[in-house]
Design brief:
This protein is an alpha/beta fold. The protein has one domain: TIM Barrel, CATH 3.20.20. Helix content is about 40%, strand content about 15%. It has an eight-stranded parallel sheet with strand order 1-2-3-4-5-6-7-8. Helix 8 crosses helix 9. The model has no long low-confidence stretch (mean pLDDT about 95). The protein binds nickel (II) ion. Nickel (II) ion (NI) binds next to loops.
Length: about 260
């Protein structure tokens, strides 16, 4: 079964049919889902989903674009949430220079704190990095991000940059963008990456793959992502699903996953 490593089912885009959609995931071949929080409000919703569904796990963290809302008090609360038994990662955290708010110094401050939090809690990190490759890599090196390990979510840089993140032994989250006609750079990076470093992700409700591009995304669309990776790698669809499932279990330290 497919292991979905990155989705946001707490998003309001799922308010109408969240229950039904999640309930039918296993019968549609989605064995495990990690729901990723991005701000303080979504942490509570994410943990509630993980409590409700045995196959849903949670990641706790604040997205760089929302990092302006963090205070020492809320950071301490967030740390407490990391202790919940179904929390498997700190994320998503990182740097996003596409959006100018909050300023880079604020983003960096909370990226650093959350990287160190993951090390303290013995959890891997989920890194969001957009138009910030150099700063992301420099901070990861300086703060020894290899200690926690983790995944570069929605990988969107070159294969040369991929080589740098590989040195830190990180995984690479590959999603719907790989199916886009114009995603030449990403297809090249996927061809370059070792198969044991790739995990499947949707970033639902965003980034739906072809043939559903532009619509609301959900984990069931991972079939198209796995097919595209199989084609790029010249291996079977089944091998992509099975290898990425085992990679995701290693990434998140989950021993049993359907
Ligand atoms: Ni995300």
């Amino acid at each position: 079964m497919i292991f979905e490593t990155h989705a946001h089912y707490d998003d309001k885009a799922f308010d109408e049919d969240r229950e039904e959609l999640l309930r039918t995931m296993p019968e549609e071949g989605i064995g495990t889902i990690v729901n990723i929080s991005s701000n303080l409000e979504s942490i509570e919703k994410t943990i509630a989903l993980a409590k409700k569904y045995p196959f849903v796990y949670a990641a706790v963290g604040i997205h760089p674009s929302d990092s302006g809302e963090l205070t020492e008090e809320s950071f301490a609360w967030m740390k407490e949430q990391c202790g919940h038994e179904k929390v498997v990662a700190v994320g998503e955290i990182g740097l996003d220079y596409y959006w100018k708010e909050p300023e880079a110094a604020v983003q960096k401050k909370w990226f650093e704190r959350q990287l160190l939090l993951a090390q303290e809690m013995n959890l891997p990190v989920i890194i969001h990095s957009r138009e910030a490759a150099k700063d992301t890599l420099d901070m990861m090196k300086a703060l020894h991000a290899e200690k926690s390990g983790g995944v570069i979510h929605c990988y969107s840089y070159t294969k040369e940059m991929a080589a740098e993140f590989l040195k830190l032994d990180y995984f690479f989250g590959i999603g719907g963008v790989v199916t886009f006609q114009n995603a030449k750079k990403l297809k090249e990076a996927v061809a370059y990456l070792p198969m044991d470093k790739i995990v499947l992700e949707t970033d639902s409700p965003y980034l739906a793959p072809v043939p559903n591009r532009g619509k609301r995304n959900c984990s069931k669309n991972l079939v198209y992502v796995a097919q595209e990776i199989a084609q790029i790698k010249g291996i079977s669809y089944e091998e992509v699903v099975e290898t990425t499932r085992r990679n995701a279990m290693r990434l998140y330290g989950i021993e049993e996953a359907r």
